[in-house]
Amino acid sequence: MTGPGEGTRHVMHVGFFPEILDHVDVSRDLLSVLLHQRAADETAPGISLRLARLQPVDVPHRLNNNDYDDFYPEFQAGAEKIAEQLGAPQAVVGLYEHTVVPAARLRERFNLPGTSVDTALNCRDKVRMKHLVAQAGVAVPQWLDLAGATGERIRSWLNSRPGRWVIKPKSEGGAVGVQIVDNPTAGLAAISRIPAAELNRYEVEEFVEGEIFHLDAVVRDATISFHSLSRYLNSCHDSSVHRLPLASITVTDGELVAGAREVADRCVSALGIADAVIHLELFRSAGEWIFLEIACRHGGAAVVPHLQEIFGVDLLDESYRANVLDPSLVPPAREQTPLRPEHACSAWLLAPMKASGQFTVTAVHPPEDVPGIVSARLPEAGDVVTDEFRPFPHLGVFILAGADEETVRRDIHQVLATYRVDLQSVPATSVPLAEEIG
């Protein structure tokens, strides 16, 4: 057995993206990685050389956030193989939605501190989380857990509550598997199409009319330090299913921010979150905050680059620090204060990929007359792009900022009206990105 040397620690990662290497001191942290076989095979040699051990695990390569936990016995077997070579880990890291629970299970297996299995499940099971935060006085949508529900029970429940309904997996993310139905008949038809063996993984939830917000926060010692509140322009479902632009703009109304922070405090306490980065989603309906869901990891889409660019808070780094219980770099009680006063309001935008399949980029036409662009990550001619395994297929990421919300919204619309990407397929196609956005 070749374990870590003096002054180093063995940190085991469940799942892995190379970006995390920018946040790790490899002279201190000996990294081992458990990764599904296809991703392990595609890991660049230069990345593999920076890892002490890359252990492939036989898990399907698909967009399914449950697979890593469904195949947990294989992950535990892989972890024990690694431990035979490197010694038991001193920390286990799970930074992504599909890795939070199996990482917690491995902490339990190796008797390590950090996010527990109970807390991880509280932040993955949408029925469980609603039940717990409701007990803490947070408003939640009405819901029906389909696990064990008879056809008559489902029919009776839908018929007794007029309106639209959301049928969704209890432990997915990014609007994967979500269906919105307009009446009980459509709801029953949609539920009937779910395989019987999978029905216990679904719920039906009241469709809440209103705006959707997300609050991203650093939690240490069960207390929120940094937090940022943003309002979605279009929803994750709109982007995932209908390929509409996905954007989010910071909230500058102090009263709204304070109200959302109070809800977040209650959720953190109710769910047992001690050291983590969280992504909380809330409805705002008829002047009331209503819980949507929470994740015990940093937000996806462009949340991380946006908050780093505008506020100087690196949520990926904070996630890693929370997982290994290193001190946070965020000062306690940090307010939502931009680094630059002229960036009083800011946003991120994913320019949608409308086409399905695999394409070669033949030309990129940058947006015109958009002074508020702070940074942009665009494809280049010759790049190969695909919508495969991407919950929000897009062809560009923009971070924008300005003096107020009206200015930032105007710049978002200008990006969508003028930015174009030409894609080569059969036949060649030019994809306009202009689309209505709220």
TrEMBL record:
<protein>
    <recommendedName>
        <fullName>ATP-grasp domain-containing protein</fullName>
    </recommendedName>
</protein>
<dbReference type="InterPro" id="IPR013815">
    <property type="entry name" value="ATP_grasp_subdomain_1"/>
</dbReference>
<keyword id="KW-0547">Nucleotide-binding</keyword>
<keyword id="KW-0067">ATP-binding</keyword>
<dbReference type="GO" id="GO:0046872">
    <property type="term" value="F:metal ion binding"/>
</dbReference>
<feature type="domain" description="ATP-grasp">
    <location>
        <begin position="130"/>
        <end position="324"/>
    </location>
</feature>
<dbReference type="InterPro" id="IPR011761">
    <property type="entry name" value="ATP-grasp"/>
</dbReference>
<keyword id="KW-0436">Ligase</keyword>
<dbReference type="GO" id="GO:0016874">
    <property type="term" value="F:ligase activity"/>
</dbReference>
<dbReference type="GO" id="GO:0005524">
    <property type="term" value="F:ATP binding"/>
</dbReference>
<dbReference type="InterPro" id="IPR052032">
    <property type="entry name" value="ATP-dep_AA_Ligase"/>
</dbReference>
